[in-house]
Amino acid sequence: MSLKERFRANFAAAPDIIAAAPGRVEVIGNHTDYNLGPVIGAGIDRHVFVALRRIPEREFRFSSTVSDIATVQDASTPKSGSDSWVNYPLGVYNSLLRRGLASEGGFELAVESDVPSGAGLSSSAALELATAKAICAAFEMELSSWELAIASREAENEFVGVPCGILDQGVSAMGESGHLVHIDCRNMESSVIPLGRSYSIWIFNTHKKHSLVESLYSERHRECTEAVAQLNREGMDIACLADMTSERFERVRDSLDATLANRAAHVIGEIERVERVRTLLEQGNGDAVGKELFASHASSRNLFENSVEELDYLVDILESMPQVLGARLTGGGFGGAVMALTGESFTEIYADSVASAYRGRFGQSPGVLQCHTADGARIVEGAESSDTIESSLG
After folding, report:
1. Does residue 385 register a pLDDT over 70?
2. Exposure of 243 by Cβ count < 10 A (0-12 exposed, 13-18 middle, 19+ buried)?
3. Set 83, 168, 254, 312: catalytic member
4. Strand order in 324-330's β-sheet?
5. How many CB atoms lie within 10 A of CB 263?
């Protein structure tokens, strides 16, 4: 059943608006966001679709492909249990109310997705941005795409309760086909960088997650904060690790606790790698980006210690493959996925050989997904839109 057919079946009416937003992949910028450094990501050609109809009743009705219809009277309180997924669109609605959205009436919303779950491609941010676009169109509210990214991040931080940075929402909002998205997490600014269309992004998902992933992530966050404090005791006078350069850091590195020094070295080096990647792409030298991706993974493995054996193995195999420019773990680490930037000639045959080698080593196959860069959140039907995306809209 298509999205529009399901909408009609569930709500006995046609939707006013259909919006779409892409999943995203972190290309480089490992743990730089909360250290107020830059990060580069890509919107990908896998989307979350939201169909929405404004209704006069003060009620909110939700439908997805994996849940029963959920009806909400009080939009100001997060939900729990099987209906907790509606907190993403409800959080967006509340963020938009604070920005002047008309509060009369409610809406009906149906969602579907072809963003694979569990692969670190941020389907939650895509849901938020598609919802934000649809609500603004239906309620005749005008906000820029970047403002919608800020509102969606606010929804996830404050309503859903996930302390994410701006990467996920920023890339889903600002993606552009043939380009990567550069985000300055200190100044909350974004720009696009040309990548060209002769490259593919491949995701190899280990389906493995460390049992302590959340506590380990929090531990790395704490270690970065402690590194800043130790650097300040050495006279650096910084507010965050993004204030440091490698040259300044090396002068005092031996004075720091060894573990904290490694954590800081990774973040400081990663920030500089992000900027080198941006420069290389702006110069049209995409093939040279791969060295920085491999260096990023080595730093994650050796200094930040947020890789695992499975991720390291995938990167090693990919480094030996033709047409692979670079590869690294993507996202928070401690399991998850590896992304590889490849040339057009890297085909499913090569990807299958990587998966086969991995299966021979670990006894199960990784999930494999080929992606291309895609435009950010947009209206695909209604509101005078002529945009189209292949989907089961119906």
Report:
1. no
2. middle
3. 168
4. 324-330, 335-343, 199-209, 367-371
5. 27
Does the pLDDT of residue 291 top 80, yes or no? yes
Q: Residue 118: what are its φ and ψ, rounded to 5°?
A: 75, 5
Cα 268 from Cα 346, distance rounded (Å): 32
380 has a pLDDT exceeding 70? yes
Helix (H, G, I), strand (E, B) or coil at 152: helix
Strand partners, 343: 199
pTM for this one?
Answer: 0.91
Whether 168 is a known active-site residue: answer yes
What residue type is assigned to position 314 of the chain? L
Categorise residue 263: left if φ over 0, alpha if ψ from -120 to 50, beta otherwise: alpha
* Candidates 3.90.1150.10, 3.30.70.890, 3.40.50.620, 3.30.70.1060; CATH matching 200-371: 3.30.70.890
Comparing CA positions, the residue from 208, 188, 242, 190 lying closest to residue 40 is 190
Q: How far apart are CA 77 and CA 90, in angstroms?
A: 9
**What is the residue extent of each domain of the chain?**
3-195+373-381, 200-371
Q: What does DSSP assign to residue 373?
A: B
Pick from 270, 379, 293: nearest CA to 37: 270
Q: Which residue has the tokens 């992933």?
A: 213
Torsions phi, psi for 101 (to 5 deg): -60, 140
**Interval 225-240: pLDDT, tens:** 999 999 999 999 999 9
Bridge partner residues of 201 (DSSP): 341, 371
DSSP helix, strand, coil percent of the chain (3-state; round to 5): 45, 25, 30
Region label for 30, one of left (φ > 0), alpha (ψ between -120 and 50) or beta (otherwise): beta
Q: Are strands 17-28 and 378-381 parallel, antiparallel or unpaired?
A: antiparallel
pLDDT averaged over every residue in the chain:
93
Give the count of alpha carbons within 13 A of 25, CB side only: 32
* E-only strand ranges, 211-259: none
Helix or strand holding residue 96 (H, E): helix 87-97
Question: What residue has token string 């670990």?
Answer: 362
Closest CA to 121 of 43, 65, 194: 43
Instruction: State which fold the 3-195+373-381 domain adopts.
Output: Ribosomal Protein S5; domain 2 (3.30.230)
